[in-house]
Amino acid sequence: MYHKKLPAILCAAALFVSPIPALAQDIQVLLDGNPIVFDVAPATVNDRTFVPLRAIGEALGAVVDWSEEEQKVTMTREGVTNELVIGSLTARRTDTDGTKEITLDAAPFTANDRTLVPVRYIAESFDMKVTWTEETQTVSITLPAAEQTPAAVPSGKKAIDFSGDIDDARKVLHHEIRYAFEQSSLPQTLLGDSDTVIDLLENNPEQLKQGIKNVWVDTVDFYLLQLIENAEEEYVINSNEDLIHLLDKFSSDLTLGADDVFTVSIETLSDGTPVVLLDLADIGTDSLDISCSYLALTYQKDKGLRYFTLETDPLVSTLAVCEVTTDSHKLYSYINNSKDLFLKTVETILTQELAPSAAINFPESAE
């Protein structure tokens, strides 16, 4: 199976260098009982635990932004925005009640090319509970009660039933097809014919939705034809009608119909930007799999068509917000598996013209 661990490979390097206090190598940080993995160890300053900014922000499902000019970190989550400045004891927290200045016990600093921030302040400012266990040197963060449903399969999200698939062959096939559709055939089709797609989005969105389903069917048929060609069983195919009938039967038996795998809707961001949103069924993941929970195609006259994914990362429990173009894959942040949060993050990327945390550029294929 050919899968790239794109979000994991794209993990961003922070931008700061400075002398640091002693690092506390044995401190562990748990989020709802699951350890958060840091590439730089947490540090203790004035009896406060500091952790790498981007890792904690992405683990908590926040959108993280950095201003080089102001040396300022901005973290946004569920309507709450925190602003912290390197070396400053003053933080600014903004929510629906306005903006407040908070005095910190120790200022954010840099260590080993990473920015470290106070974990208790960050978590509690996002309405999470934080406890410290001295015996085990453990910080335990608990999400708000309303968010404590499993992130991987939100309530009401369709899931494909793979019970009885003893050798996982059907599940593997789903992952193969989903990966090709989500990361290649759909973005290449939509972004490769932008004028037609924009016209359909503005004038005939139902036809655009059907066109997306057709791309799925074509992707499925490509894989099913390989199965038929490599199968030990012989199939009698005397006409195109015979072949279509056989492909339809395989698709039905393997739960590969477009309506089984995703729904397509036309959404609108708060500024009026139209979004073609795909809500994809959960098919389970393992350490080698990348699959998307949501796909979003947006259009703005000054920015053109843009294609975003909310996809799994085998190394973290949250999902990666990425952008796929015809020649690159870009990572912006990690968030919980939520349609509303995904759309909000996409809107933030567009309105604030955020740069990705990192990107992989695909080499041009050889002729």
Task: Summarize the structure in short.
This protein is α+β, with helices and mostly antiparallel strands and 367 residues long. The protein has helices at residues 6-9, 53-59, 119-125, 169-192, 194-203, 205-230, 240-253, 258-261, 339-351; strands at residues 28-31, 34-35, 43-45, 48-52, 63-67, 72-77, 80-85, 90-95, 98-103, 109-111, 114-118, 129-133, 138-142, 262-268, 274-280, 292-300, 304-311, 319-324, 328-335, 358-361.
How do the helices and strands follow one another from N- to C-terminus? HEEEEHEEEEEEEHEEHHHHHEEEEEEHE
Oligomeric form: single chain
Round the Cα radius of gyration to an integer and report it: 23 Å
Q: Mind summarizing the main beta sheet?
A: 7 strands, antiparallel
Give the spatial strand order of the biggest sheet. Answer: 14-15-16-17-18-19-20
Structural class: alpha+beta
Cα shape: globular
Please state roughly what percent of the residues sit in beta strands, choosing from under 5%, 5-15%, 15-25%, 25-35%, 35-45% or over 45%: 25-35%
Structure annotation, total helices: 9
The N- and C-terminal alpha carbons lie at a distance of 25 Å
Number of strands: 20
Unreliable sequence segments: 1-25, 149-155
Fraction of residues in helix: 25-40%
Q: On the 0-100 scale, what is the average pLDDT?
A: 83
Task: Give a written overview of the molecule.
The protein has 367 residues and is α+β, with helices and mostly antiparallel strands. Helix content is 30%, strand content 30%. The strands form four sheets. A seven-stranded antiparallel sheet has the order 14-15-16-17-18-19-20, with helices on both faces. The longest helix is centred in the middle third of the chain and has 26 residues, at 205-230. Residues 1-25 and 149-155 have low confidence and may be disordered.
